């Protein structure tokens, strides 16, 4: 989706791997030196195109996005069958991981949003349960855990967050992230869900100001009609 360019040339893949390894070792100072004075360039819309090509491929909806929206639906979908409440969180997990929601056949064409790129297995697929471990994003070390034993609503919300995170990765630079955060924040009636995630990208000196601003839903929109 993107690349680091310095003086118009991509930083070599070996150096990017070294940067990621340094981050996994918490050596952010050295890691940042690798991308110092480099530009982050979005390639998703211009891959294999000349700089003057006039045929950009603007994505409106694509299959992965639709599947992830369906996974959101299954996260909360439930109905009463003869006094028994049936839920479908496992369907949501399967849509993301391996496509087993659609068919049990081993040769099914639907491999899941993560599975189609080899990340939907038992060790690297998304999962939720009673005990959910929190991992460091760089070292993958367990740093905490979330106990949702007997808390099905909490389990649904955690699954929803994992789906939204997957959507952020899958649809990066496609203009959907803010609307996803808005939708979940409104569904939960919790503006902090959006405010916390958006403010986190700002410099530390601005985060509190941005957070407080976004705690007011009216500030999520362009005040086009204000005088």
TrEMBL record:
Q: What's one Pfam family the UniProt record gives for this protein?
A: SusD_RagB
Regions crossing the membrane: none
RagB/SusD domain location? 51-193
Write the record's keywords in alphabetical order, separated by commas.
Answer: Cell outer membrane, Membrane, Signal
Q: For this UniProt entry, what is the primary localization, expressed as one broad class? A: membrane
Location(s), subcellular? Cell outer membrane
A Gene Ontology CC term for this entry? cell outer membrane
Per the record, the similarity remark reads: Belongs to the SusD family.
Name of the protein this chain belongs to: RagB/SusD family nutrient uptake outer membrane protein
- Lineage, uppermost ranks: Bacteria, Pseudomonadati, Bacteroidota, Bacteroidia, Marinilabiliales
């Amino acid at each position: 989706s993107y690349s680091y360019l310095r003086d118009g040339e991509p930083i070599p893949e070996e150096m990017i791997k070294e940067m990621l390894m340094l981050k996994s070792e918490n050596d952010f100072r050295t890691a940042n030196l690798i991308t110092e004075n480099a530009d982050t360039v979005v390639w998703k819309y211009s891959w294999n195109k000349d700089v003057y090509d006039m045929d950009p491929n603007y994505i409106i909806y694509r299959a992965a996005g639709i599947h992830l929206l369906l996974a959101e639906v299954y996260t909360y979908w439930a109905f009463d069958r003869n006094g028994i409440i049936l839920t479908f969180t496992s369907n949501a997990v399967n849509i993301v991981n391996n496509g087993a929601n659609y068919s049990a056949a081993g040769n099914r064409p639907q491999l899941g949003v993560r599975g189609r790129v080899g990340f939907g297995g038992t060790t690297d697929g998304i999962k939720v349960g009673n005990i959910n471990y929190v991992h460091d994003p760089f070292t993958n070390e367990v740093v905490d855990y979330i106990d949702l034993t007997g808390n099905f609503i909490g389990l649904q919300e955690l699954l929803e967050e994992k789906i939204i995170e997957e959507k952020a990765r899958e649809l990066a630079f496609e203009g959907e992230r803010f609307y996803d955060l808005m939708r979940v924040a409104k569904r939960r009636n919790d503006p902090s869900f959006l405010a916390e995630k958006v403010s986190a990208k700002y410099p530390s000196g601005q985060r509190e100001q941005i957070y407080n601003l976004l705690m007011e839903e009216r500030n999520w929109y362009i005040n086009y009609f204000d005088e």
